[in-house]
Amino acid sequence: MPERPIPGAAADLEPSSRPGVPMETAVQPLAGARVPITPQHSAVPVYKHAGRKQMPPVYGTAQPPKGLSGVMRKAAYGYPDHWARHWMMLLLADRVDVWEHRLRRSLPWGLPAVAALVVGGVTWRRLSRA
Amino acid sequence: MRALTYQGPYRVKVENKPDPRLEHPQDVILKVTRAAICGSDLHLLHGLVPDTRVGCTFGHEFTGEVVETGREVSQLKKGDRVVVPFNISCGTCFYCQRGLTGNCENSNPASDVASGVFGYSHTTGGFDGGQAEYVRVPFADVGPMKIPDDMDDESVLFLSDIFPTGYQGAEMGEIKGGETVVVFGAGPVGLFAMKSAWLMGAGRVIAVDHVPERLAFAAHFAKVETVNFKEVDDIVLYLKDMFEGRGPDVCIDAVGMEAEGSRTHRVLGLGLKMEAGAPTVLTWCINAVRKGGNVSIVGVYGPPWNFIPIGTAMNKGLTLRMNQCNVRRYMPHLLEHIRSGRVDAKAIISHRFSLEQAPEAYHLFAQKRDGCIKCVLAPHGHA
C-alpha cells in the first residue's frame, strides 16, 4: 500500500465530512425550491404508468408517441411499472418505432420503386402471354 | 438547432431539430458549452433501455450558458454559466426534502424507478439531453450550480454525474479507514470511485477490468493496484486469495448491465432479453466480498429483473447499498476537491469532438478504441 497514494488521501475519513452521510437528511426543502409547483401543460400526449395516480407537475414532451409504436406504448403504460409486460411491451414498441421510421424515410424512393416493379411485372406478364 | 439523435440500436446521427422552448415557469434554456458521453449512454445506444424513442437526444452530463429564463426563475440570469446534475429534481417532494434528489417524484410520470433524467429515454421522463446546441433545464433554481468565474467548464463538467456517482459509490461502501476496496470497472465512474475511496481513507484499492489501457490509466490516475480478469482463471477466487482467502471488505460495481466475463449472462440478458442485461459484475461482487462486507452498486441496471445470487448475499450477511446518485448535494464538496487540486477531474478526458463528430465519438467510446476513457463534445466549438 502506498503511504500517501493521492493528494488529500483520507481527507474525507470522518463520515460526517461526507455529503451523503446520512443518506437521508433532516426534512427540509432544497435551496431555491419553490412551492406550490405550477403544473406544466402539454399539447402532446404524455403517458404515465398505471401505478401512478396523477401526472407530476413537470415532465418531458420530446418525441410524442405516434403510429403503431405509439399505440403499443399507450397499451404498455396501461400497466404499472412493476409488471414485466409493461417493460416487454415498451421494448417491442421500440423496435417497431425503428422500423416505422425506416419505412417513413424510405417512402420517397420506396413507393416509386415498388410502383415501377408492379407496373413492370404486369407488363412483362402481358407481353409474355402475347 | 443541431442535435445528436437516436436512430435505432447502434445508430445515432446529428440532424436539425426544433430549438427547445420554455415549457414551465421554472425552466431555463441553456446554450450547451460542453457535453460528455457517459458509459450509461451506451446502454441507450445499444437499445437496452425501454422506451428509447427514435429522435431522442442523449446527454445527461453537460455545462452551459443561460440564454432564456422562465418567469419563476430567480437564482439564474441570462449569461450565467452552470453545470447541471443529471437528475431533474423539484427540491420539495418527499424524497428531495430528505436529500434523495435522485429519487424525485415530481419529474417523471413514466416510472417510479427513477427521477427525471436528461436525455435518458422516456422511462426517465422523456426529456431531451444536452448533446445538442441547446437544452431545456427544468427546476433551474434547484439543480444547476453556477460555475465559479475562475474555473473553466471542463474542470467542473464531471460534477454533473460521474464524479458524484463515483464518490457516492465509495461512500456507500461505508469506508471507515484502512479497508480493502475492489472497484470493478476502470471506466470514468470507476476511476472516480477509486479516487474517492482513497479520499475516505481506504487502505488498499484494486481496479478490476479487462481493457489493458484502462487499467494502465487507473494505475496512473488513481494510484491503484490492477487486475485484468481475463488474465486470471477465476476472478472471485483470485480476489479472495489476495485477502487471506476471505475477500475484500468492499466491492463497488461501476460497470452495470453490459459487463463482459460471463457468456451465460450475455446470452440471457443482452441476446435473449430474459434479464435486464448481464449482471456479471454484481455476481462477482457478491461472491468475492468478505462475509459481512459491503457491496455498493452504481452501475446501471434496467427493469424488470436480473439473475443474481441473492441467497449468497443473505447467507454471507452482506450489506448491499445502491442508488442513483443524489448529485446536487455532492457538487459543492467535490468542487472543493477539484479546486484544491486533490482531484484533477478533467485529466480523464481522452478525446474531444465537435457535435457533428458525435456519432464517431460514440463508436470510439463503445469499442474502447484508441485508449478512449472519456469523450467530450463542444456543440459550439472548443473555445
Describe this entry's structure for a reader.
The complex is a heterodimer of chains A (130) and B (383). Chain A has 130 residues and is mainly alpha-helical. Chain A has a domain at 65-130. Chain A is built from two helices and no strands. The N and C termini of chain A lie far apart (91 Å). The relative contact order of chain A is 0.07. The model of chain A has no long low-confidence stretch (mean pLDDT 94). In chain B, a hairpin with a 2-residue loop joins strand 1 and strand 2 (11-16). Chain B has 383 residues and is of the alpha/beta class. Chain B contains eleven helices and 17 strands. In chain B, strands 3, 4, 5, 8, 9, 16 and 17 form a seven-stranded mixed β-sheet that branches. Chain B has a six-stranded parallel β-sheet with strand order 12-11-10-13-14-15, with helices on both faces. The longest helix of chain B is centred in the last third of the chain and has 13 residues, at 327-339. In chain B, helix 3 (162-172) crosses helix 4 (188-199), helix 3 packs across helix 10 (327-339) and helix 6 (235-242) runs parallel beside helix 8. Chain B starts with a strand and ends in a 5-residue tail after the last strand. Chain B has two domains: 2-161 and 326-378, Medium-chain alcohol dehydrogenases, catalytic domain (Quinone Oxidoreductase, Chain A, domain 1, Alpha-Beta Complex); 162-322, Rossmann fold (3-Layer(aba) Sandwich), CATH 3.40.50.720. Chains A and B meet through helix 1 and helix 2 of A and helix 3, helix 4 and helix 10 of B.
